[in-house]
Amino acid sequence: MKYVPDATADRQFQSDNTVDRVGVDGLLSELDEYAVEQSLQIKEKRDGEDVTVTALCVGPEKAVDAVRKSLQMGVDKGVHVVDDAIAGSDAAATSLVLAKAIEKIGPVDLVVCGLASTDAAMSVVPAMLAERLGLPQVTQAAVVETQGDQVRIKRDGDAATEVIGGTMPLVLSVTDQSGEARYPSFKGIMAAKKKPLETLSLSDLGVDAGQVGLSVAWTAVEETAARPPRTAGEIVKDEDGSGATALVEFLASKKFI
């Protein structure tokens, strides 16, 4: 799960054109909350079995707040990877760090991701994780069903709905249609304070600092510009019956119709 700038806040870029993740309010990515929810539902369906749900996040020091949010929702333990060298990493480097952290956490049955992050919105990390971990992937799940080591999902596309199955271990990503994420209860908030939360660095994962960061990123933001201020709208008065025509012409000029 990812710590992202609050979409309702005044989001900014730094001088090197990377997103400012320290000087702005941040939170657990909303799309990743659905991944947390599905993970908890899978655990609840396996009542009586020894199942541990771990929240893993890579980000600056403030990103620990996103991990704590997942613990409050019901996750069993958290892992936060923080290292100054990671700043500016693209999806390829991020997937490397995540994969090494997952391997360190131990053998896993299921790696659950959100559809995409609400800041970069690339939606490629789940596939990259599957490749790095040598696992199959079932992605963009609107419905998730599990039985034993079998995972079955329904994926809604533009032209068709697919039903895909896989055998654990595998990488799964879920959409915002998979089920409303729960809110942390007061009991959950208090219980989260006693749950284990581990902090790791690149050296803990055996990742060389030269493999991550802005200098080795495959993608870069060349230029940014502030959003222009909103202008006054155009008012069409339908005094002579020409209002409908003027409205259609306006929509056509903007290629809305």
SSE topology:
Layout: E1 3-5, E2 26-28, H1 30-45, E3 54-58, H2 64-73, E4 77-81, H3 91-105, E5 110-114, H4 125-133, E6 137-141, E7 143-147, E8 150-156, E9 161-167, E10 170-174, H5 186-192, E11 197-200, H6 202-205, H7 243-253
Helix pairs in contact: 2-5, 3-4
Task: Give the overall shape.
Answer: globular
Order of helices and strands: EEHEHEHEHEEEEEHEHH
Fraction of helical residues: 25-40%
How widely separated are the two ends? 39 Å
**Would you count the extended β strands for me?**
11
**Strands side by side in the biggest sheet:** 3-4-11
Q: Please give the count of helices.
A: 7
- Which structural class best describes the helix and strand composition? alpha/beta
Low-confidence stretches: none
Q: Determine the mean pLDDT.
A: 91
Radius of gyration: 22 Å
Tell me the major beta sheet. Answer: 3 strands, parallel
Strand content: 15-25%
